[in-house]
Design brief:
single chain, alpha+beta, 4-stranded antiparallel β-sheet, 53 strands
């Protein structure tokens, strides 16, 4: 169980893909000639196919993934080789836009490439000799004959640097190994058969940068070349494979993506072939893995009856069924129950195997019938305490699910959320239960979230690996030369691959398959910020973007000691001032660029250079409970401030407007005050924690008050306002605590709208999220985000967080567009959602829950994330 697949399929396939930049690009003219395939040896490990043209050289020139895989030195040497040979004036007219095959062959304990380059016309030997002499002017050209064929050696004068090449059948063959090259012409060496060639050609996508073929039976041999140890449970699954796989590359700047077909029809003794007639399912067990999981393989089935019938046949072929049936018989005789009709239906259609960072192994099995399980738990197991049990009978899980559970003879198990978690030691399960209680899941990490967004959501078999978490295990199993390259962060970039996955989905007897590898990027997973700045403590508000001079903006940030910092969009600190308290609500910027801000005890008005206007700051007579609202009634601007149970009013020059503080409300004012003008009446509206809505005029006189029936419970969310042309069509929305929102008209009876189910801890906001004509109801409750239409209460979207969320959503205004919605989770993960309810590309990212997302300067339409991490640095990422 302690061998990871990175050292076989994933690592090797990535090495193959890396060479595309050096020897070919997009197949512009759809030339998919398979001619060279028929000359390759039967034991070829893998083949990459592409056309030699310059269409996308600019795309791949800075493609970091290739350099990361083959290493900086090798990349530079091969790039020079391409420029000097393939792009030479003599050879270029013959090979441009022609098909190239790059095949890989075993030579002792190494993997050696062979290049097969088709040419557009026949070349006689004399012309070829002249051509080789011309393009090899920087080499020593050494012609020689073998197997009745003229070979040429191009020697750079450095040991082991000779490139051998020859020409036959309108194909140039080249390799750094004479022995590998000679196999093309050795009649004793069997070649790839016609059926394999047909499979490759039929599944080749003509619009892909690279097509990749490999022979499934060669995968174990590739693993043995790279590994110094025996196979474990992961690799045992590929040890008996037959058939072939054809993949096509999907270009993405920060990921390897290959998709195609896998044929396992001749793999009669293969466990994976059991899934060929299943259909892809949504897989959920990855969400239950602990945070310290390094890799896992998840299996799901759509037809349990078919799966178990074929599993019995496979176990019989493996000569395992007789042994397992004895254990089953013991259970049936002791418990007087049927294994097939009682025990098997207890379990659902998904099971998984996971390896942790410390190389411990967990099994996970979904339980479909918890009642039936509870009735039979004593028949199956005995308690060992702390909600941990042990199976009474050996190998029952292998009998139910086959090879993945062969290493669990009489395992221990525990139950969480209808998931059986099994292990061979009780300590592993006790550690797991602690992780479960603390909600420390792998699925809550940014790497997992981003990778899940990359790969298919439905599959029958998914293998997932995080190389950083499994690093020690990988190094333990790689042979010395490969381990050295894996550790070399200067010459190679293996450490910059965050995650890998491989998926198989049944397709009427065959499989669709795919490979994904997530690479670092400037905007993903905190890869590379545009700039950072160190502060002394954490920030206590979301950052604000304000105008500096009409041509430039600046960033305002307040940290825990109440120091306010101003930064330019490129990260230069412009000034800092110490405010008396936390800035409440949102700062307001006036046309003269001055900024109004309120703390608990003071009213500020300052300029973009940080200097207060004359007369400011001002001591408030009562403590403010939220930020200011600015009115422009009768062309006179005033500042209104909620102060717990009263309203304070000021002119723009800081003079207090008398009268407001005498009209107190029945409880605490909720968040900010709303203002509007309907007809001849100017309204100031306040919602209170006692579920009352007050309508004041501009001088503080109460026009009317409406108190809503919330069963005596106080409320805590901001009110929403819809202002139309008259009182009858204008409304205030106030959220209750039991799934309802009250629609309170300026004139008329209130209406109760039932939306869902939530409690007093729910967050409610009334914002424009969907981009429609009306604002929307945004609810966050029980770690679930819901957005509803305020017009007809229909649901726009729903998102369920794996992590706990006890922070109010943030909203970022965009001119002429819907608001951007952001959520920060309790374990410091930042989510940003689009109007379609999907998590935006590059998210979630690590950071505290106070953050900003959007543009930060004039003339720059890019979005930026501004956030803080645990090191108290402010990070700014460009998207």
């Amino acid at each position: 169980m302690k061998k990871t697949i990175i050292i076989t399929i994933l690592l090797f396939i990535a090495v193959i893909a890396a060479t595309i930049y050096l020897f070919g690009d997009f197949n512009k003219n759809n030339k998919q000639d398979s001619k060279a395939l028929q000359y390759l040896p039967e034991n070829t490990l893998a083949i990459a196919s592409f056309a030699n043209d310059q269409t996308v050289d600019t795309i791949f020139n800075d493609y970091e993934l290739f350099r990361a895989i083959i290493g900086q030195n090798n990349f530079s040497n091969l790039e020079r080789l391409k420029n000097e040979l393939l792009n030479s004036p003599q050879l270029s007219p013959l090979v441009t836009e022609q098909q190239i095959l790059l095949s890989f062959h075993q030579e002792k304990d190494h993997i050696t490439p062979l290049y097969s380059v088709q040419v557009g016309q026949s070349i006689d030997q004399q012309t070829l000799g002249t051509l080789i002499g011309q393009i090899g002017k920087n080499y020593q050209v050494q012609p020689f004959d073998t197997l009745g064929q003229r070979f040429y050696g191009l020697n750079q004068g450095v040991k082991d640097s000779t490139l051998y090449c020859t020409y036959s059948h309108e194909i140039i063959f080249a390799s750094y190994s004479k022995q590998v090259l000679a196999q093309i012409f050795d009649k004793k060496v069997r070649k790839i058969n016609t059926k394999q060639i047909e499979f490759f050609v039929n599944h080749n996508n003509k619009n892909t940068p690279l097509s990749l073929y490999f022979f499934n039976e060669q995968l174990p041999q590739i693993a043995r070349i790279l590994m110094k140890s025996k196979f474990g449970n992961y690799l045992n699954l590929i040890d008996s494979l037959k058939g072939q796989t054809s993949w096509n590359m999907n270009f993405k700047k920060d990921a390897f993506i290959f998709k195609g077909e896998t044929d396992l029809t001749t793999s009669k003794n293969s466990y994976l072939q059991l899934f060929a007639n299943q259909t892809a399912q949504v897989q959920a067990l990855g969400n239950y893995l602990p945070k310290n999981a390094a890799s896992y393989i998840d299996f799901s089935i759509s037809d349990p009856h078919n799966f178990r019938a074929e599993l019995k046949s496979l176990l019989s072929q493996q000569k395992e069924y007789d042994r397992l049936s004895k254990s089953i018989k013991n259970l049936e005789e002791d418990a007087k129950i049927s294994f097939d009709s009682v025990i098997a239906p207890i379990f659902n259609d998904e099971f998984a195997l996971a390896e942790l960072e410390n190389q411990d192994v967990l099994g996970l099995i979904s339980i479909s019938d918890s009642t039936l399980f509870a009735q039979n738990i004593k028949n199956l197991s005995s308690s060992v305490g702390d909600e941990v049990y042990q199976f009474k009978y050996s190998s029952l899980l292998q009998a139910l699910f086959g090879d993945p559970f062969k290493g669990f003879t009489r395992p221990y198990f525990t139950i969480v959320d209808n998931i059986m978690v099994v292990a061979n030691r009780t300590g592993i399960l006790r550690d797991y239960r602690e992780s479960f209680r603390e909600k420390q899941f792998l699925s809550g990490t940014s790497i997992f979230k981003n990778h899940a967004a990359l790969q298919n959501s439905r599959s029958n078999v998914t293998f997932y690996l995080e190389p950083k978490a499994g690093k020690s295990n990988i190094l333990d199993n790689l042979k010395a030369d490969y381990a050295k390259n894996f550790k070399d962060e200067d010459g190679f970039g293996f450490q910059n691959f965050y995650s890998w996955s491989f998926q198989l989905s049944g397709n009427q007897g065959s499989f669709t398959s795919s490979l994904y590898a997530l690479f670092k990027s400037d905007t993903r997973l905190g890869g590379k910020p545009a700039w950072t700045v160190q502060l002394e403590s954490r920030i206590i508000n979301k950052p604000w973007i304000l105008d500096q001079d009409g041509k430039n903006k600046f960033i305002l940030i307040q940290e825990q000691d109440h120091t306010v910092h101003a930064f330019s969009p490129d990260g230069k600190e412009l000034w800092q001032n110490l405010f008396q308290g936390e800035i409440l609500g949102e700062p307001i910027q006036l046309p003269d660029l001055s900024i109004i801000a309120v703390t608990k005890s003071r009213l500020y008005r300052f300029m973009p250079d940080g200097k207060n206007l004359t007369g400011f700051s001002i001591q408030l007579p009562s403590n403010a409970s939220y930020g200011a609202t600015l009115s422009n009634f009768n062309k006179e601007q005033r500042i209104y401030i909620p102060a717990t149970d009263r309203i304070l009013a000021y002119t723009l020059d800081g003079k207090r407007v008398e009268g407001f503080e005498n009209n107190t409300v029945d409880s605490r004012i909720l968040f900010d005050l709303k203002i509007t003008t309907l007809g001849q009446t100017n309204y100031i509206i306040a919602g209170t924690s006692s579920a009352s809505v007050y309508f004041f005029d501009q001088n503080g006189k109460i026009i009317h008050k409406k108190t809503l029936d919330t069963d005596g419970e106080s409320v805590k969310n901001p009110i929403g306002l819809v202002a139309a042309s008259d009182e009858k069509n204008s409304f205030v929305y106030l959220a209750g605590n039991k799934g309802s929102v009250f629609k309170v008209p300026f004139d008329g009876e209130s209406k109760k709208i039932k939306l869902g189910s939530w409690g007093k801890d729910a967050f409610f906001n009334f914002e424009d999220i969907s981009g429609g004509a009306d604002r929307d109801f945004v609810l966050l409750s029980n770690n679930k985000l819901n957005v509803y239409s305020s017009r007809d209460s229909s649901s726009y979207y729903e998102y369920k967080f794996i992590e706990d969320v006890s922070n109010r959503p943030l909203f970022f205004k965009r001119i002429g567009k819907s608001d951007v919605l952001g959520v920060g989770t309790d374990n410091r993960m930042i989510y940003v959602f689009g109007s379609d309810g999907l998590v935006q590309e590059g998210f979630p990212m690590e950071g505290f829950s106070k953050f900003y997302y959007g543009p930060i300067n004039y003339g720059d339409n890019a979005n930026y994330l501004i956030c803080m991490k645990r090191d108290f640095k402010v990070y700014v990422y460009k998207f």
